[in-house]
Amino acid sequence: MEKCILLTVALLVTLRFAAHARAEVTGPEPFGKTADGTKVEVYTLKNKNGMIAKVMTRGATLIELQVPDKKGKLANVVLGFDDVAGYESDKNQYFGCTVGRVANRIAKGKFTLDGKEYKLATNNGPNHLHGGVKRSLDKVLWTAEVLPGDDDSCAVSFRYVSPDAEEGYPGKLRVVVKYELHENYLAIVYAAAADSATPVSLTNHSYFNLAGAGSGSVLNHELMVAADEYVPVDDTLIPLGKLAPVKDTPLDFTKPMRIGGRIDSLIKTPTLGYDHCFVLRQRQKNKATFAAKLRDSKSGRVMTVETDAPGVQVYTGNFLNGAKGKDGKTYNQRDAICLETGGLPDAVNQKAFPSIILRPEETYHQICIYAFSAE
Question: Which residues span the domain enclosing 72?
Fold first, then answer.
């Protein structure tokens, strides 16, 4: 009897502790060294419901995101690698990183700003992609800081100062990316300021598979996007200059649709599947509103995306090629989907698109929220 009482008391203490568990950040912990010998560190954010987000200082990168399914079982839903060497290898396709200064493509790697032409690296055919080659924001080391939290949320911020002319971009740019883990969502908040005019359009390039990273194709996931228009592109994926309606096209996700339901009609096009920018319905500055919803019926996991950005690039991992990732998992073509919120592609050369020029008297701000539930 005495043993039963002691066990009961121990159980009650455990339950009481769990009920009062706080969201917390642990770290930094070592994640290896870069090729030049610089230490890379990881911080772990955990909420009281068991969700876990891990972020590293190289590229202010989300390397792991553990989310419960309908039975409460956790699984990592983003693609990644076990150490920094994987992220420095040619197997890395921008997994989970902060992308910039300008995400997406800039036509022929050049633009004119205030009467002066700037030339950037062309690293995607004839075009500039995702900020450059050697010192784009995904490849540099950021300074991390654990921020004050509370019972329901915790946060880590990353700071980087990009000097004038880095990767060809004008002006010194100060960037802050903050990861906040709340009760059921991960918020990524971006801020930037520059000492002279420069284009800025940041995003997070996480690859999602709600059944679990490395568990196979996402073609049976259902997707909904709050967009009535998309950005048509040429053979090098540069915008043609005008928007087009999604209605009566394979890009109509105004209602939940299976990703694989109509993708075959896109495979022999330049995008090789879905790799399109959707123009989100009217946004409110500094206020995140519904952008997209992703659902995996097998696990029951649902991810809702909210943002104040004008667009979301939907990319179905068309260039994943069987590389080995975290925990030895294999990432094959269409084993994940990216939902990259931000400005429209080549906006710096497209007068009809929302401007991405940041001037010294302004502050860049963007928020992206990945909220999770199970059904």
Answer: 24-374
- Give the C-alpha separation, 171 to 200, whole Å: 11
State the pTM of this model. 0.93
Asked whether residue 2 is assigned to any structural domain, the reply reads no
**Catalytic pick among 130, 205, 221, 276:** 205
The CA distances from residue 346 to 30, 31, 85, in Å, are 37, 35, 31
149: domain CATH number? 2.70.98.10
Cα separation of 178 and 145, whole Å?
9
Domain presence at residue 205: yes
Number of domains comprising the chain: 1
pLDDT in tens, 286-296: 789 999 999 99
Helix (H) or strand (E) holding 11: helix 2-19
Measured between alpha carbons, how far is 335 from 212 in angstroms, rounded to an integer?
A: 10
Q: Which of 64, 167, 180, 340 is catalytic?
A: 340
Beta strands 357-358 and 323-324, pairing class: unpaired
Q: CA 27, CA 49: separation in Å to the nearest integer?
A: 19
Asked if 183 and 152 touch (Cβ cutoff 8 Å), the reply is yes
Active site residue 128: no
- Structural domain contains residue 39: yes
| Residue 129 included in any domain | yes
